[in-house]
Every structure is written in C-alpha cells, then in structure tokens.
Amino acid sequence: MAQNDLNKVADHFDLFHQPEYQTLFENKKQFEGRHSDEEIARVVEWTKTWEYREKNFSREALTVNPAKACQPLGAIFAAAGFEGTLPFVHGSQGCVAYFRSHLTRNYKEPFSAVSSSMTEDAAVFGGLQNMIEGLANSYALYKPKMIALCTTCMAEVIGDDLGAFITNSKQAGSVPVDFPVPFAHTPSFVGSHVTGYDNMMKGILTCLTKDKKTETKNGKWNFIPGFDAYTSNIRELKRIFNLMGVNYTVLADNSDSFDAPNEGEFVMYNGLTTLEEGADSINAEGTIALQAYSTEKTLNYINSEWGQETAVYRPVGIRGTDEFLQALSKITGQPIPRELEIERGRAIDAMNDSQSWLHGKRVAMYGDPDLVMGLISFLLEVGAEPVHIVVSNSNEKFEAEAKALLASSPYGANATIWGGKDLWHLRSLLFTEPVDLLIGNSYAKYLWRDTGVPLVRIGYPIFDRHHMHRYPIYGYQGALNLLNWIVNTILDDLDHRTDIPGKTDISFDLIR
Ligand code: SF4
C-alpha cells in the first residue's frame, strides 16, 4: 500500500481518496439502508425552512453538537498551570484519552494526564483500590510535586468520595501523608469544561493555602485566567504587568504547558506557577479574574474564606482593555505607560482602516460565555451587528450580562441570545435568518459548508488550523489580532466570490 512507503506518506486528505478506501466506502452503503439521493436532497432542503426550525427548536430531550466539553477537561487544564503537577482523573480510561487528545489536537503539543482506569468491577464495588494503586504508581513513575485529582461520570454515578479515598490512599502508603493531592468532583452530566476549571482551581487553592495565612499581606495581586484557550494571553498579560510594575501571581500559568519550546528534550511538567506561589496567594492584596463564568466558585471562596477583594476584567477590544489597564493603574498607583498608549492608538487606527468592511455586518457566533462577552464587546466597537449568539453552557447571569452589553449600543439591537442551544439549532438560525459572518471553533466548519457563511475560527477547540492560540486576543495587540482574523476573512470570502475577470472581479484593490 502506498501509505507504507515512507517517501509517500499520505495525509488524511489524500489517504481516504485511495481506491481501497473508496471501495470500502462504496461497499458500506449497502448496509446503511439509506434513502435515495433524491429523498436525502429533499429532506436537506426541508431542514433549511422555518417549518423545520420550529420543530428543531421545540426539541427537549436531544442535544446535537453542543458547543461545550466536559468538566474534567477543564479541571486538568487548570491543574496544568502549577509546577510539577500531574492531573489524575479517577474514572474510565477512555475519558482521559479523550481529554489528552482534545488538548493535544488543539495545541499540537503532547499533554500528560493519568487515569485510575476504572473498569466493570470498580464500577460495581467502587474505585478505591484503583485510586490506591494509581496514586502509588503515578508518584513512583512520574515523580510529580503535586497530583491534582478529578473525576469522570462513572466515578460520580457510583458516588466515589475523593476526600475519603485520598485519606485511605495516604494511609495505605500510596503517597506521603504531606504530599499535596488537591481534588475536585467533576461530574460531566452537569456543567461543562468551564465549571470543571472552576472546581479544580478552587480545589487546588484550598489545598495549597491551608494554614498559610500570615498576619501581613505579600504586596502581590493574583490573576486567574480561567478556561482561556489562548494561552498566549497569559504572556501578553505578563508583558503588560511588567510594563506597569504590577507585582503578580498568575493562578495558574499554563502557557508553557500548551506551548513549550522544542529544545530537544521532553519536559513532562511545564506549569509555571510554583506551589509556593500558589500557597502564598492567600496573602495577596486581592484577586482579579479574567473570566467570570469559569471562576465563580473560586472567587466566592477567595472572597469569603480569604477575605480578599475580588474583581473580574475582560481585556478584549479597546473598552475592555481600557478598563483593565485603568484597574491596574489604580492598583499600582502608576500611570498607564506611553508604550501601551501607542499600542492603543495603533489598534484604533487599524480599526478605522477596516471599519468600512465591518460596519453593519450581521454576525452569528457561539462559544463559552466569557469569550462570547469579549467578542460581543469587540464587534460592537467596530460597528458589526451580533445577530445569533449561541452559548450551550449559558446561565441566567450570563444572559442578563450579555443583554445589558448589547443594549449599550445601537449595533446590539438585533441580537438574540440563544442560551443552552447547540450547533444544530444554529444551523436552522443561519438558514432562516442569514448573516454575513460566523464566528466559532473548528466545528463551525460544517456550518460553513452547509450555509456558505464565511467562518472566522475563534474559540476552543481549533483542530483544523494551526497556531491560533499563539496569538493573544487580550490587550490592544489582541484587538489587532481579532480585527485581522475578522476583516481578512471577509476579504478572502469576497475574493472567492468575485473571481471572474471583467465580470464579477471589478475590484480596484490591485489596479496598477
Ligand atoms: S461526559 Fe463523562 S463519560 Fe463522557 S468523556 Fe466526559 S467524563 Fe467521560
């Protein structure tokens, strides 16, 4: 077979066009009991109608392509920011394989997480023995400084108690008694990856800061990124902190875990926040989160248990970044540096340059609540009009906040927030109330294929494009990146639709 020839390695685009696969696909059809091509075409057309939309929106028991992932994925994403930390998922092996591959496919980066590999017997008798052996093996083999535990659905359904299991495992000698094993219950039949992030961050901070409160504050500010797939945002934040003289701790900095340099040697642990910094975070002046909906429980805990001031800022676009920098200026007592003022001016100049292509463009979007809030704010700034806003992991608080933001601009007047809806709902919306632009993760490719609406890939996961996470969307630099992706998608689409010389190609862009 051609794919066994090392000089002719076929990628997945070419591989499945080879005759053996084509024959296989053809043969498979006889077992599918499919309808005729005419009938399929008729139903496809019907699914684009208002009649179908009404039926689609009345479904209650079925979800099709929700724009969210499950809780443990968010939990291990949070744990990856701490130094020497091994994420350990108590539950089925297949779930953990999914989390690892999901992260690896997004970041093109190896990612380590272990599992207690529960099987049928553990599902009946409980997973304590798996935990005892799993912790002992993980500690001996991978030599972590901390093991962060979360659960899959299976462990939650049978009611395994992580706190008690950890105590029993320590008594059994799996890990030393003083070895940090923070935990979070992360049942995926409720919440999503953003809830899992929140649960795990709270769990880790609870564990690390136990008995660490001192009489005096440490003069630092804590910053919690939340489930932010753009790990370069953390680097951008640190650049801004350094420019403004902010004494900070990032809780927790996973930018290297998902974007490590290739220096010829495998490094298993790349979390940049030390356990000492995590422990001392209880003595900070205050805590600022960059997302609201992936940090709700953590901020409540910090506020009520640590007695710290907390706030949320989303430094997306001009308004969001302005508010964030003003808050930093208040914290430090320092003015906003000239360097950042110049960056602001450049971002505004760029937005003016592109404004005519963006003004009045109708936009559909989906994603996590905090990302969507940032994108709405940015779109309103450039005069685009959000129309369909789908957030599968929505809640009432988010919807109220989003509505207030939309009401603050005339460009928000035609928007509807579709909380709890999925991508199959969005497909109906796109056919019945068309838009000019779609913003979403890689799964929006199917919507783009179906509807032809140009797609800007922003969100998580992005499997079918490379390096997006290496470009921040925070700060004025981030505003430039968002603008670049959005306006150039519109121009690319225009080029593809006007490519007949002398007929449709009447642009003067390239005139001599
Ligand atoms: S939803 Fe539950 S069973 Fe499915 S991958 Fe997530 S944790 Fe595992």
Automatic annotation (TrEMBL):
Name of the gene: nifK
Cofactor(s) of this protein: [8Fe-7S] cluster
Gene3D superfamilies linked to this entry: Nitrogenase molybdenum iron protein domain (3.40.50.1980), Nitrogenase Molybdenum-iron Protein, subunit B, domain 4 (1.20.89.10)
Group of enzyme by EC: oxidoreductase
Listed InterPro entries: ChlB/BchB/BchZ, Nase/OxRdtase_comp1, Nase_comp1_CS, Nase_Mo-Fe_CF_bsu, Nase_Mo-Fe_CF_bsu_N
Cofactor binding description: Binds 1 [8Fe-7S] cluster per heterodimer.
Tagged with keyword ATP-binding: yes
A UniProt-annotated Pfam family: Oxidored_nitro
Keywords: ATP-binding, Iron, Iron-sulfur, Metal-binding, Nitrogen fixation, Nucleotide-binding, Oxidoreductase
Domain of life: Bacteria
EC assignment: 1.18.6.1
Protein's recorded name: Nitrogenase molybdenum-iron protein beta chain
